[in-house]
Amino acid sequence: MFLESDNFIIDKLQIKDKDNLRILEESRPWAKTILAFKDQLPGGNEFNYFEKLWSEYQAHDYFWCIYRKDGQFCGDVQLDRDSDTEYHLYIQIIDDARIEGFGTEMFSQLIDKIVEKSGAEHLEFELWDDNDPSKVIFEELGIDLEDGEWVYDI
Questions:
Q1: Domains of the chain, CATH where assigned
Q2: How far apart are CA 62 and CA 71, in angstroms?
Q3: Is the pTM value of this prediction over 0.85?
C-alpha cells in the first residue's frame, strides 16, 4: 500500500526503516521493561528483542511506515488478523513526531485502503495508554476513544 497526502506518506516497510523502528520500539514503556529484564538475565541467556520484532515485521503482510513528506519518520501502522474479517489496528507514533494534520489528511484513505486490501469488516483500535501519541489523530477527527478504544464496522 502507498498513500500520499499534502504532508504525509504511508508506504510499505523497507530496509531503510529498520533504525527508525528500533528507536520507536525502544521508546515504548513495555519495551523498556523488557530491555531492563533482559539485562538481569544470568550470563549467556541474552536475546535480541528488536531483531526478533524486525523479522516479524518483514514477514507481516499488513505493516506500513508513516513519514512526513520532508522525510521525517513518524511511526507505523500495523494490522493484526483476528479472523477472516476482524482485525486489530495499531498506529504507533514516535515520541515528539510532528503528526498534526495526519488525521484530517490520511485517516479515511488509510481505513478505506486497509478494508480494500485485507477484506476487514471489523477493525478495533486501542490506545497503549493515556499518553499514546496516536491519540492526536483521533482527537483531530473528533473521534471519542471511549475507554481508549475505537471500533469500526462496515
A1: 3-153 (3.40.630.30)
A2: 22
A3: no
